[in-house]
Amino acid sequence: MSVSATTFAASARTAADLARFFSESPVEAADYALRFARAAGLSGATVAKLEELTAFEDPTQREAGLLQFAQEQQAAFSAFDLAQTQAARAATLGFSAGPAKPVQLTGKISLATVAGNTDLPRLTTPDGKTWQLKTPAIAQTGGQHLWVQHRYLEANCLKAFDGMTVTVRAYATTTPEVLAVQSFAPGTPPDFVSGRLALVDGKLLLRVAPDSNVEITDPALVKRLSPFGNLDVGNPVGGRLGIILPGPLTERDGKLFYDGAPDDYWMLAKQTPGNPMLELAHGQRHPFIGDVSAEAKFADQRIFVFGHIDEAGKVVSSRKGALPMPPAIFEDGVEHVSEAGELAKLVPVQALVGGDFSGA
User: Fold this and answer.
1) Rounded Cα distance, 154 and 168, in Å
2) What is the DSSP letter of 10?
3) CA 271/CA 299 separation, integer angstroms
4) Residues 119, 132 contacting (CB under 8 angstroms)
């Protein structure tokens, strides 16, 4: 990062701090401002103009346009002054304010012992910050208590990626050193989606969060994955195969869709010693091809397998071995906060360039 970016990262990230960042390093400042706007749910003419200027291919023209934008749009910076961002006021500044979204962060996973709990996943980002990772809380349904890992791909699964680089989408919490992780993927993919499959009314959905389902649309992928999302097969819980898919989502008529057809993806599984079948989707057993072995001490525990489901319904592993997880913990999740000020502190000043997904 530049000196200006480093200074801004350590600041309170007020409107004045952002204006100073723009004056010193407009390209870096605009990149940060756009990522914050997306996380805070800000859109409209001001954001569109900023996106237009950052798209200029000529670096001199891009920088000049952004400097002029900063001089002409001083009032807009107050939309980024973070505890003051309110929907009613945003409209007067050329913004519309929608629901906040999780912030995308990339870092390295490690395990720690906190208050007697062992093997808790932590994320350390390139700027040296370290967070404990938990799952956002979900509401009880009809008075029935449901553990988060029965319905969604919980943050506890990140234990499998100990020592590896991962990318998470997360919210801040009321505890500064704790993040509420909504979804994650190994490596540095710019786009991905993770959750648990559910076959509902003939549609294959990926349950990302209590308020977020994604419909999978590619016919071949739907055909192969639908048996692993069948809620009538296996244990009677609220989700099936945990899966991480690379690639972007699209929004149509207010709904999210995954139109990709990846060659390989990550799957949450379990292999029981002496059983030639692989357990997936809460109790379903399926044949597999390839190496899904893990260390003996992790026998009869959950594993992550990188590969795909073939036309015969077999799990094909395309990565030597599996990534094991220490024992699951049953958690209610943690309440997250989505105030603009907290989001602004969480958004990385400089985003990493996306790439690897396999974790190989």
Assistant:
1) 12
2) T
3) 7
4) no
pLDDT, tens digit (0-9, with 9 covering 90-100), for 173-215:
988 889 999 999 999 998 999 999 988 899 999 988 877 899 9
User: In whole angstroms, what separates CA 47 from the centre of its chain?
Assistant: 23
The whole-angstrom separation of Cα 109 and Cα 131 is 10
Sign of CA dihedral 9, 15, 21, 22: positive
Structure tokens at 71: 């001089």
DSSP 148: G
CA distance 250 to 355: 20
Phi, psi values for residue 80, rounded to 5°: -100, 10
Q: Are 178 and 119 in contact (CB under 8 A)?
A: no
pTM: 0.85
Q: Look at residue 360 and tell me whether its pLDDT is greater than 70.
A: no
- By the 8 A CB rule, do 239 and 204 touch? no
pLDDT tens digits for 5-61? 999 988 888 888 888 998 999 999 999 988 888 887 777 788 888 899 998 888 899
Answer whether 13's CB lies under 8 Å from 82's CB: yes
Phi, psi dihedral angles at 18 (to 5 degrees): -70, -40
Task: Say how far apart CA 101 and CA 217 lie, in whole Å.
Answer: 23
Instruction: Give the phi and the psi of residue 240 in degrees, each rounded to 5.
Output: -120, -130
Contact 188, 352 (CB under 8 A): yes
The whole-number pLDDT of residue 84 equals 46
Rounded to an integer, the average pLDDT of 308-328 is 86
